Amino acid sequence: MRYLLFGTGDYYQRYKKWFGADEVVALIDNSPEKQHTIIDGFNVISPEEINGLEYDHIVILSFYVREMKRQLVDLGVDTERIFHFFDLYRLGINKRFEITCYGAAEEEIRGKRNSSVLLLSTDLELQGGPATGLIRVARILKQSGTDVVFGSMQDGPQKEKLLAEGIPVVIDPNLQVRQMVDVEWTQGFRKVICNTIGFNVFISKRDKNTPIVWWLHDSSFFYDGVDSNLLKNTDFSNVEVYSVGKVPKQAIQKIVPTLQIKDLIYGVEEPSEIIYFIVLGYIEPRKGQDILLDAIRILDKSIRERALFYFVGNDTSEMAGEIKKQAVLMPQVVVTGRVSEIEKKLLMKSADVLICPSREDPMPASVVEAMLMRKATIVSDATGIADYLEDGKNGMIFASEDSHMLAQKIEFCIRNVDKVRKMSEESYRTYKEHFSMSAFEERLLEII
Questions:
Q1: What architecture is domain 275-440?
Q2: Cβ distance 289 to 279 under 8 Å?
Q3: To 10 degrees, the CA torsion angle through 231, 236, 240, 242?
Q4: How far apart, in Å, are the Cα atoms of 59 and each of 24, 27, 120?
């Protein structure tokens, strides 16, 4: 088969593995910036350039199916030659990808699956209501004593967080593309919970002995690529369908009006008071961000969950790479990389406490800026500014490289928010006395 792939964005990245290099004639994209470039060794052309090319099918790798399909039809393409990534199972592609097991996933799917619940998601990215909602389901079930396995077609940062909570993970690119009867490891579970309309192909032909919960989050926009006949002819016996409100319910009932759907609105945790810490500067040994990361790791989990730590600054160093790798296991740590001056000021404004963990720092400007903005500060005694602070009054001081002592200072701030606010005001008075322009002008003129 010879294919034209329409779309070079996120869904191209997800599904390109299903097509061999010798099967792809070209990539199509509507963006002038991408046209006449090369991606993965393939020429990128405009839709108007497809006439005259020899191909069997065009596969749309986007959710903007309606517009893209109309565009192709207007160019004279037969609708029978246009497919969507939901239709890959109909193209006779024989590829099959190996699954990858993490945590105790292999043990679960080989031996204990009849007592476990399998949760299937489209991806493990940090953003998005559907994936986040299903991860909350996994946590609730785990805490209730239920064995769970989390499966996803696409890897992502949430995987490490699930593993850290003892929830095994399976990454299987065959999910959504293959029907359940062709994905053997998903069969025989006590129950399978599928997330979003993306699993419409998966459940269309399945192991009828495995109870399915299909949890829908999608508006009608996401149904443009769905094979309506496949959905209408799906046997929904032993399938319970739930929706996060009326919008997904109305979307699927346009195609299957008689489908019985119940509401399952996902919950959002009520936030406790969160204290924001920020550290500014190039991530390097001299600045001591690794000491701070060790201190965060030392904190008890219940304390750590009441805080957020922003590491702001150039993150291209070797130490920065290691910090980012370790931070994946700490959802409270955010490494922003280099930001603009405006973004830096906004982050500083949102913060409660600035931490300067430097191994050596004559007079860190970030601490002075924090004092000007009425922020409490925690600094190492290897910084020059420590001489202007009285521990616990207008700031806090810890012994350089002592991550345990730094952890104690951080915990004090988390437990004593009112005292942090008082320190913030004292911090500003210290700025006015020693670091304001008027104080500097007075000293300078005295010298001159």
A1: 3-Layer(aba) Sandwich (3.40)
A2: yes
A3: 20
A4: 10, 10, 25
Break the chain into its structural domains and give their ranges. Answer: 3-91, 100-263, 275-440
Q: What is the C-alpha separation between 441 and 363, in angstroms, rounded? A: 18
| Domain range 100-263, CATH architecture | 3-Layer(aba) Sandwich (3.40)
- Distance between CA atoms of residues 105 and 85, nearest Å: 28
Residues 6+ apart with CB under 8 A from 414: 275, 303, 306, 307
- The yes-or-no verdict on residue 196 having pLDDT over 70 is yes
- Amino acid (one-letter) located at 28: I
- Counted residue by residue, the chain has a size of 448
Question: Taking Cα atoms as reference points, which of 398, 397, 392 lies closest to residue 422?
Answer: 392
48 to 38, 45, 53, 69, 74: CA distances (angstroms):
17, 8, 11, 13, 10
Query: Where does 3-91 sit in CATH, by number?
Result: 3.40.50.720
What's this model's pTM, rounded to 2 decimal places? 0.63
User: pLDDT value at position 368?
Assistant: 93
pLDDT, position 201: 94
Query: In angstroms, rounded to a whole number, what is the distance separating the alpha carbons of residues 38 and 404?
Result: 52
